[in-house]
Every structure is written in C-alpha cells, then in structure tokens.
Amino acid sequence: MNLPVPAAGNSRVRSSFTRIYVYGLVLLFILSWGYVLFGGDSGLASLTSGKTWSNAGGFLRELAGIGSGATPAYLQMDQWVEKGKLAYHTLAMSVLAMIFAVAGVALTFLPAARNMGNGELGGTPSRLWTVLYYLVRGTFILTRAIPELVWALIIIFFLSPGILPGALALGLHNYGVLGKLSAEVVENLDPRPTRALRAAGSSNFQMLFYGIIPQALPQFLTYMLYRWEVVIRTTVVVGFVSAGGLGREFRLSLSFFHYSEVALIIFWYLLLVVAVDLLSAWLRRLARFD
C-alpha cells in the first residue's frame, strides 16, 4: 500500500515559518520586558512604591466599610434587594442583547458563507449571492470592529437611558462576532449531504432544512452560549454610559465615594457571572455539545 508522501518543499516552508514565528515572539518578549524594566515612563516604579500599596490597602478597607463610621451596604437588607433588582436588569440586558444578535445572524449568516454562492454546497453559482456575500461580510466586520462601549455612546444620544440602549449596543457588536463564526461554520460543512439532496431533486429550502441546519445547529448554539457568557461580563462596561443595570450604579457609587456599595455591586456582579457560566455549561452538557 502506497501512502502519499508530503512534498519536501512544503515541509521546509512550514519549518521556516515556524522558526520565524518563534523568533518573532522571543524578540517581542525581550523588547516588552526591556521597556517595562528600563523605560522611563513604564510605571514600574509606581507599582513597587510603598505609597501605591498603602493607597491600595486604604481602598480595600473602604470597600469593606472599615473605619467609615456607617453601616456597610452589604449589612443592609434593603441594599441587597435594591442591587438585586439591578442585577436582574443586567441579566435582562444580556438576554435581550443575545436575542437581537441571534435574530440578526439567523437572517444573514447564509449569504455570508462563500460556499453558498459559488455552488460548493450543491447549489447554482449566482452573482447575487456573491454581492450579498461581500455586503453581509462587510456588515459583520463593521459591527464587530466598533466596541460595545462606542456603540452605547452612539445609541444613548437618541434613546433614553436604560437597558434597551445597552442591549442594542451589545447586540450590534455580537451580531458581527456571531455572524462571522456562523458563516465560517457553514463554510466548513461537509458538502456531500447537500450535494446528494440536490442530486435527488431537493429544493433550496429542503437543502437548507435537511442538509445545512442539522450539521451547523450544534456549533451555532455552542457559539451563542459562549457569547452569552462574554456579554454578561460586558454589561457593566456599557452601564458606565448610563445604559442601565449594575454598571450605571457602579459608576454612580464610585463618583459619590460610596465604596461599600461598590463592594456589594461587585459581589452581585460575580454572582451573576458565575450563575450564567454554570447555566451555559449545563445547557451545553444537556444538549451534548461539549
């Protein structure tokens, strides 16, 4: 039995590329640490100064409510209830953002897959699909290139403060991220099932529902759950621009030096993140996607 032998030229190219890559990483490592250790404004001296650590200790004591003379927020039940409502609003913002993103991706991920327009999946090549491919891909690039915070700053100008601007900002950014991932899933599908369906005389909708979606759906849902975990962490960032939830209250508490409330908000935020991570992991195990 004769096995194919890889070309020697390809092996040499890969070896050279790997060597250059490793050398480049080592060089960047040396330059980065050289700047940190010997750069005049790297901030290393401030990091190692006693004053910095003294200030950090004082801030931690204020977070714990030590020496303030008032009852810390985490020992007041009404503060727990109030921050719990904000945590609920933050969770609602993340869910709403994922609904916006997933709905947009569901309508546009097929034109963004190159093999849908060039006939690789058994369809007929079309110029219209080619135009849609570049248009939708460009939209994905634009929406994910602009950070969530910038989207929130733009949207807050024409919408009143609340969870809706934050959800729209998070949804727009994650639309681009999920769209790119979903299109690449379709591009990496096994084309044989769809080609067999086309040869049997199936329509485009039959190819979609019996050949593409069954193969791609597990990865779609996995990516969606992973992005939800990222979104719940980002809600506090868009909240800084009055987009609602725990982030807005976090900024206000810092501005008014209510540090024990800041500690309570951080605690609620950690509970929220851990709960979403556990729920997402459970859903993936339940669906046997992991």
Could you characterize what this model shows?
The protein has 290 residues and is mainly α. The chain folds into two domains: 6-37; 76-286, Orthogonal Bundle (MetI-like fold), CATH 1.10.3720. The chain has twelve helices and no strands. It has helices at residues 8-38, 44-47, 50-63, 77-108, 114-117, 127-145, 148-155, 163-187, 192-199, 204-239, 245-255, 259-286. Helix 9 (192-199) packs antiparallel against helix 10. The longest helix has 36 residues, at 204-239. The mean pLDDT is 83.
Short characterization:
The chain has helices spanning 8-38, 44-47, 50-63, 77-108, 114-117, 127-145, 148-155, 163-187, 192-199, 204-239, 245-255, 259-286. By secondary structure, the chain is mainly α.
- β-strand percent reads under 5%
Total strands: the figure is: 0
What about the largest sheet?
A: none
Q: Do you know the CATH architecture of the largest domain?
A: Orthogonal Bundle
**By helix and strand content, what is the structural category?**
mainly alpha
CATH C-level category of the largest domain = Mainly Alpha
The secondary-structure element order is HHHHHHHHHHHH
Q: Specify the number of helices.
A: 12
Instruction: Indicate the CATH topology of the largest domain.
Output: MetI-like fold
Taken together, the total number of domains comes to 2
Unreliable stretches (pLDDT < 50, length at least 5) are none
CATH superfamily of the largest domain: MetI-like
What is the rounded Rg? 26 Å
The outline comes out as globular
Alpha carbon gap, first and last residue: 37 Å
- Fraction of residues in helix: over 70%
Mean pLDDT: 83
